[in-house]
Each structure stands twice: as structure tokens, then as C-alpha cells.
Design brief:
CATH topology of the largest domain: Elongation Factor Tu (Ef-tu), domain 3
CATH architecture of the largest domain: Beta Barrel
CATH class of the largest domain: Mainly Beta
Radius of gyration: 48 Å
Largest sheet: 6 strands, antiparallel, barrel
Strand order of the largest sheet: 1-8-12-10-9-13
Strand content: 25-35%
CATH superfamily of the largest domain: Efflux pump adaptor protein, beta barrel domain
Number of domains: 2
Length: about 350
């Protein structure tokens, strides 16, 4: 190819570049090509179970906290019923043990009081017998008391002493029953601990049963995709339904390094979608990446991808429900002097 033919081709290329630059300023200023994104939330199963119902179809509006998917809770319901019966048995055992301890304690205290009274009585009798024997001994030495009376007093003294020993032994055995009562109380504490543990396990099962009803987030959403159908088996982590908050959408743009000083968090912009040409909606930059990266292939031409850009998010300030994720459009800067901006991202690839 000779130089004469190259000159017209070069002129055409220059004209094309100039036309593209003019198009980027079309509509009153430089702009960045962006696309609408939404924070899609995927609702997943936390337990295993067969899907009984999917309450909402694709496109349905879902109220905050509504039950979206129901899984078969038969297994967990059976475990809860078994645990409830176990609680009933433990509660009955605790009532019986408590009543037995109360009865035993009252009886023991009464027996101890009785045995203490008997000991005091025998001690008094023993003391009287000892005094009587001592008196008879003195009288016997004086020749006043007969040997028979002395022997009788000695026998009474010895018998009353033995009675005191027996009373002390009975009182000691009666008091020893306090250990049995303490043991019964410890057994009661063990039963109460088992009851508390079973109640905690029942509470855990109730929490687990609640997971068989998969609920929507605590904000109004719209179903984007139904990922399971009734009859299918869901495992923990299985994606069930994806939903999108209609108000939680933004426009993502990529800002060339040269424009980084102009596009900052808080910058005001105007958004014009390809689906509604001529209609601009106010927006505001709410995020700019700290580090630059290479421009994604989805947005830029091959030559522009050789440069680096900062990813930024633009919050939609008006009519956010009308923005559909995936829609592309232009984002125009309203702050600062647009004439000082570097070349904006081209619309075409």
C-alpha cells in the first residue's frame, strides 16, 4: 500500500475519533458509561428437608419477614415431641423427690427432737440413780441401810447408765439420717440440672424448627428467581430463592485515573438510561475504590482497557424502583468544570 492511499485512511480514522469524542459530550457534558446493579440476596436453606411449598413466584412482591419457602419439619417435630415427654418425666421425678425430701426432713426433725427428749430423761434418771446409790452407800457404811437396798440402788444406777448409752446411740443414728436427706437433696439438684439441660435442648430444637420456614429479609423485596420446587430435597446451603430490594440499586461506573480528583464521594451527578433517553435522574457518588484496577471488558474497548480506572458507585436519588438491573446508561458529573475532565469512557466497544 502506497503513501497516497494511507493518507485518506488516516484522515478517516481521525474523523472517527473526533466523532466519538463529540458523542461523549452529547447531551451537555462529559459522562461515564455505567450500568444498573442491585444487591441481590439469595435465600438459602440452613437445614435438610424436602421442599413443601414455595410461596412466591418470580416477580412477586414479598412483604418483610414473610415465609418464602417451607421445608418438611417432620423429623424435628418428632424430636421436639420426644424432648417434651422427657421434660414431663423429669418434672414428675423432681416433684416426687421434692415431696419425699420435705416429708423426710419433717419426720427426721421430729425424731431428733424425740430422741433428744428421751436422752435428757434417761440422763436425769441416771443422775437420780447415781445419787440414790451414793446415799445408800453412806447409809450402808453407817449400818442403817441393808445390803439388799444397796444392791438395788447399784443395779438401778447401772441400768440407768446403760439406758443413757442406748439413748445416745439412738440419737446418733437418728441424726445420721441427715446425711441421707442431704444425699436426696443432691439427687434433686442433679434432676434439676437435667431438667435445665433438657429445656435448653428443647429451646435449641425450637430454633431449629423455625429454620424450616425460610423467611424474607426484614425489608420489602421482589422475587428474582425461583431456584427450587416442591418435592425437591434441600440441604444446608442450598439456594432456594433470590430476591432484590427495589430500593437497593445503584449505578456502577469506572473512572479513569486522570478524573480521580473530580469524582469523589458526595459528587452530584445526573443519570440517563439508554431505555429512557432524554430523562435524567439525580444521583450521588457514594463509593470510590481505594485502589485502581484495569477497566472491565464489559464496559471499555480493548485499547482503553490498557489504562487503569477506579470503580465507583452512584446512588440513585429519585425513582429508583424504575431502574432495572443490567440497564446501561450515562452518568454526567454536575460538580466542577467538565471541560477540565480527561477523556470519558466511550459508549461503544
Amino acid at each position: 500500500m502506497n503513501r497516497k492511499r494511507l493518507i485518506p485512511i488516516a484522515a478517516l480514522l481521525v474523523a472517527a475519533i473526533a466523532a466519538s469524542l463529540w458523542l461523549r459530550r452529547d447531551g451537555g457534558g462529559e459522562h461515564y458509561t455505567g450500568f444498573v446493579e442491585g444487591e441481590e440476596r439469595v435465600l438459602r436453606a440452613e437445614v435438610s428437608g424436602r421442599v413443601l411449598e414455595v410461596a412466591f413466584a418470580e416477580g412477586d412482591a414479598v412483604a418483610p419477614g414473610a415465609v418464602v419457602v417451607r421445608l418438611d419439619p417432620a423429623e424435628i417435630v418428632a424430636k421436639i415431641a420426644s424432648k417434651q415427654r422427657e421434660l414431663e418425666v423429669l418434672e414428675a421425678q423432681i416433684r416426687r423427690q421434692d415431696e419425699q425430701i420435705a416429708l423426710t426432713d419433717v419426720t427426721w426433725q421430729r425424731d431428733v427432737a424425740t430422741r433428744e427428749a428421751e436422752l435428757r430423761q434417761t440422763q436425769a434418771q441416771s443422775q437420780l440413780a447415781a445419787v440414790t446409790h451414793e446415799r445408800q452407800s453412806q447409809l450402808a457404811k453407817q449400818g442403817v441401810a441393808s445390803p439388799q437396798r444397796l444392791d438395788e440402788s447399784r443395779s438401778a444406777r447401772d441400768a440407768s447408765g446403760s439406758a443413757v448409752d442406748r439413748a445416745r446411740d439412738v440419737l446418733a443414728r437418728t441424726r445420721a439420717m441427715e446425711g441421707e436427706i442431704a444425699l436426696a437433696k443432691r439427687q434433686l439438684e442433679v434432676l434439676q440440672g437435667q431438667l435445665a439441660l433438657s429445656r435448653a435442648q428443647l429451646a435449641e430444637l425450637e430454633v431449629l424448627r423455625a429454620k424450616y420456614e425460610v423467611r424474607a429479609p426484614a425489608t420489602a423485596t421482589v422475587v428474582q428467581a425461583q431456584l427450587v420446587w416442591p418435592g425437591e430435597l434441600a440441604q444446608p446451603g442450598t439456594a432456594l430463592v433470590s430476591v432484590l430490594d427495589p430500593s437497593d440499586k445503584y449505578v456502577q461506573i469506572y473512572v479513569p485515573v486522570a478524573d480521580a480528583s473530580r469524582v469523589r464521594v458526595g459528587s452530584r451527578v445526573a443519570i440517563e438510561l439508554d431505555s429512557e433517553p432524554g430523562r435524567r435522574v439525580p444521583g450521588q457518588v457514594v463509593f470510590v475504590a481505594d485502589q485502581a484496577n484495569f477497566t472491565p471488558e464489559k464496559i471499555e474497548t480493548r485499547s482503553d482497557r490498557l489504562g487503569q480506572v477506579y470503580r465507583a458507585k452512584v446512588r440513585i436519588l429519585e425513582g429508583v424502583e424504575r431502574f432495572q438491573p443490567g440497564t446501561e446508561g450515562n452518568v454526567y458529573l454536575l460538580d466542577g468544570d467538565a471541560s477540565t475532565a480527561s477523556a470519558a469512557t466511550p459508549d461503544s466497544r
